[in-house]
Amino acid sequence: NLQNKKPKAVVSTQSTGIPTRGQAAKEKLYMFIQDLCKQNLGEDGYRYFPFALGLFTTIGACNVANLLPYVEMPTQIIGCTVAMSTTLIAGLTIKCIAKHKLDFASFFFPPGAPVGLAPLLVPVETISFFSRAISLGVRLGANLTAGHMIMHIISDFGALMLAS
After folding, report:
1. What gap in Å lies between CA 108 and CA 126, rounded to an integer?
2. pTM over 0.70
3. How many beta carbons lie within 10 A of that of residue 103, not counting itself?
4. pLDDT tens for the chain, residues 1 to 164
5. What number of other Cβ atoms are within 10 A of residue 141's Cβ?
6. In sequence order, which residues have a C-beta less than 8 Å from that of residue 62 and are 6 or more positions away?
């Protein structure tokens, strides 16, 4: 009878209360991202902690996996990194507009600037704001591709040195 059976608990034979190296590393990562959210977003930043941790670990894991030979991860493809950064910037813009309403438009006109320069400044600031998403994606993809190419060159050179 399955209803009468209780699940067995897994008990460690060494319950010292001291975290292992892996647990300490995870805790450091957790605290780093948590502090980053708090410093940049204030006390309200804890709401975004799970998203930030997921994004950071996904990109980090893909970057580390890219170091392996013959492995191509999504972060190495410039189109993927541009799509990730564009989606992130679009989501943040929508969230910011929802929170600040019309005050969001003041972001495109620097304080203290003469009103006569508004026809020039607003388009330039708008273009620079939205081009940030593309530049972030291209930089991440280009850096990873360059690192991957350097690893291939060094490994090929090492193989040639060992073969001769």
Report:
1. 6
2. no
3. 10
4. 555 555 555 555 566 778 889 899 999 999 999 998 889 888 888 888 899 999 999 888 888 887 777 777 887 788 888 888 889 888 888 988 898 888 888 888 878 888 888 888 888 888 988 888 888 888 888 887 787 788 888 888 988 999 88
5. 21
6. 73, 74, 75, 76
